[in-house]
Amino acid sequence: MRFGPGFLVTAAFIGPGTITTASMAGANFGFSLLWVLVFSITATLVLQGMAARLGLVTGMGLAESLRENLSTPWARWLASVLVVSAIGIGSAAYEAGNLTGAALGIQSLLGGQLQGWSLLLAAVAGALLFSGRYALLEHTLIGLVLLMSLVFITTMVMSRPDIPALFEGLLLPSIPAGGLTTTLALVGTTIVPYNLFLHSSLVARQKQRLEKNELRKIQCDSGLAISLGGLITLAIVSTASAAFFGQQLEGGSGMNAGNMARQLEPLLGSLAQYFFAVGLFAAGLTSAITAPLAGAYAVCGILGWSTDLNAKRFRGVWASILLCGALGASTQMSPVAVILFAQATNGVLLPITAIYLLWLMNKKALLREYRNGFKSNLLAALIILFLLGLSSYKLWSLL
């Protein structure tokens, strides 16, 4: 089969933040939180599957659909403010971390100044986006995802994880003492609202014929790519568990995505260090490309602007996101206030977007025979209830 938009979704959610969160989960709690990953990937498959079907059937991305189907001006205005805040500003806030993560990976391999690598990688991401060639972007990101898969899975195999304990963590849900925050972080780093906008827009822009065979191809692509993303995250958790479980490391005292590559050397040897550094580079670069792209699709779609890759406003939005990230990475600023704002707005946006998507997927006039069935609605409703609880907890903790 041909790889497609689903792999860009995986490229988007496997980034330095995911590596750090998965590393913390494995280091502090071993395999006990792997069941959270199973839930997160299942929820992502359901929601992204609906988003992709929406794009294929309607020919519109989620943002355009949101704008077209909200009947009152105040509702469209509120949606525009929320999407621009959560997706546009949020992407800019996280972009510095994406570039820094990629730069840390390449610095571990080649040395040099972190700021210089950050600026160079921002230029590479900008050149790919400015080319306006979707095929080039897709092939680059798919290649980087496959590279991540190779290096992280190989590193996991080298770490020789405890297989019975791994399956126990996958199948027996439990939250160990002090593990609630990490549990929520694992969910939040996998189920992200801008991927719903990105996936639907990428499928819609292909303008393929609406056939059940085509829908099946899109579903297979999404299932394979998102499952592969889950496997990558599982590999990171497993490697961190084998290397660090029992040390009770904290994110600010030695355990982060930048230095984990070096810390693995005593257990796995020098090759594993370089493998992990390559994976970190690939994860950071994929997110550094997809975050501006997703932000541009969401912002331009909700504001009624063209979502063509060569449109001036589209380029202006992704360039602004990339520039903010490059400035943050090159000056090593920590935009804490902006990131907290982005987390809060994303916490509000995710369940609202999921509820709207579920409502839309039941509109017979819009989707005809492609609308949701009972089982899909039940599963989506359960996921949304959990996301509402997650968002409420996030907002409470931030405030």
Automatic annotation (TrEMBL):
* Membrane topology (UniProt): Multi-pass membrane protein
Which stretches are transmembrane?
32-56, 77-94, 114-134, 141-159, 179-203, 224-245, 274-305, 317-342, 348-366, 378-396
Keyword Membrane among UniProt keywords = yes
Q: Keyword annotations for this protein?
A: Membrane, Symport, Transmembrane, Transmembrane helix, Transport
Q: Has the keyword Lipid metabolism been applied to this entry?
A: no
Q: Tell me which Gene Ontology terms the entry assigns under biological process.
A: iron ion transmembrane transport
Where is it predominantly found? Answer: membrane
Question: Would you name any one GO CC term?
Answer: plasma membrane
Q: Name one GO molecular function term.
A: symporter activity
Query: Sorted alphabetically, which InterPro entries does this protein's record hold?
Result: NRAMP_fam (IPR001046)
Q: Which compartments is it annotated to reside in?
A: Membrane
Instruction: State the name under which the record lists this protein.
Output: Nramp family divalent metal transporter
Q: Which organism is it from?
A: Bowmanella dokdonensis
